[in-house]
Amino acid sequence: MKGLNQGQDGGSAPSAHDANKSHATPVWDVTVLTGRSTAAAEAEREAVSRAEQSIGRAAAILRDGGTVAFPTETVYGLGADARNTEAVEAIFKAKGRPSDNPLIVHIADTSQLDGLVTEVSDTARRLMAAFWPGPLTLVLPLRPGVLSPRVTAGLTTVGIRMPDHPIALKLIGESGCPVAAPSANRSGRPSPTLASHVEEDLSGLIDGILDGGPTGVGLESTVVQVQEDGSVTVLRPGGITSEQLAAASGTAVTTDPGIERSPDEEEIVAPKSPGMKYTHYAPKGALTIVQGGTPEQVSGWIDEQLKAAAARGERTGVMAFEEHIGRYAADCVQSLGSLAGLEAAAHRLYAALRRMDEEGVTFILSEACPEEGLGAAIMNRLRKAAGQRVVRL
Question: What predicted TM-score, i.e. pTM, was given to this entire model?
C-alpha cells in the first residue's frame, strides 16, 4: 500500500497498476448498475455480479494509489485517493493538467465532511440539503494535513461534492477514501461524456475505466463558495443555476468576475476553483462564437464565413440550435438541441466538439444562446472552448 498522507511520499516497489501503464487501459462495463438494463432476469443477475466485481477491483486500485475513470451525472471523472500525493500527481501527469489548478474531492456520504473540513455554514448546509447528491461543488475551509497539497494547489479551502450517480457513489464508498477527480480528459480537451471519450484521451495512461454509459447533465458541476455574510458566490456555472441557488439558500447569489477572464488575464491570477483558469474544453479546430443580432443576421454572417473558409481549403463545422440548423451547409453540422430546452445543449455540447475533431474540422462557428438559467453554464463552456473568441453582431 502506498503512503496515504502528504508526507508519505517515499519510494516503493512498483505496484500492479504501475506495470499496466504501458498497455491499453482496461474498460469494465458496469452499465447494468445504472438501472437501464433490458436483459432477462438471469442474465441481468450475472451482469450485476460482474459489474460489482469490476467496481470492487476499481476501488482496490484507488486504495492502492492508482487512477480510475468513472461516470458521474455530469461528466466522467478521473479519480485517485485525495490523501495520497503520488496518486494525485498521477492525475496531473495523465491529464497534462497545470499544477496550480485545484481538484474537486468527491465523497459518498456527508459524514465524510467532518474529517475534511473545519466548518460548514448554515447556508452551505441548506445547499447540501437541496442539491446533494447532485452537480454542486461547495468550496469549504480545509482541515489542515488531511489531503495532499496537490489537491488544493496551496489553497486553504477545498471543493467537495457528492455525485448523483450509483456507480460513482458505490466506487467512492467501497474505496474508503475521499476521491479527487477532475474530468477524465487530456487538459484543455472537451470533457468526456462517454467512456469512449476517456479511452480516446487517456488509454494507456490510467489504470482503469468504469463504463457506465452516457452521462446525464453533460456539463461539470456548479462550484460555489459561501461568504462570511452568508451570500453565495458562483466560481463556476454548471448544472445548478444561480436561480436555483438563490431559491434554496435564501440569500444573494453573485458571480465571481474571474469566471470570464481573458487568457492573458488568467496567467496572473491564481484560480479559486477548477474551471476558472486556462482555455478549457477546446476542439482541435479554431472555434468562434457568433452572438447578437437577429437569427437571420447570425445565420447570414455564419454562411458567408463558412463559404470563405471553404474557399481557403478549410474543413468547416457549425454548431447551431434546432430552430436554425437547416440554414447551414458545412462539412460537419452539429445540433445543440432546441433553444426552448437548453438541457439538450448541455448534454450534447462536449460530444459535438469531439465530433468536430473526429471529422477533421479546422474552422468552427457556433451560435450563442441566452445566458439565463442553464444558458450561463453553456456559454461559459463555449467561451472557454473558443479561447474567448466571440464575434458580436
Answer: 0.88
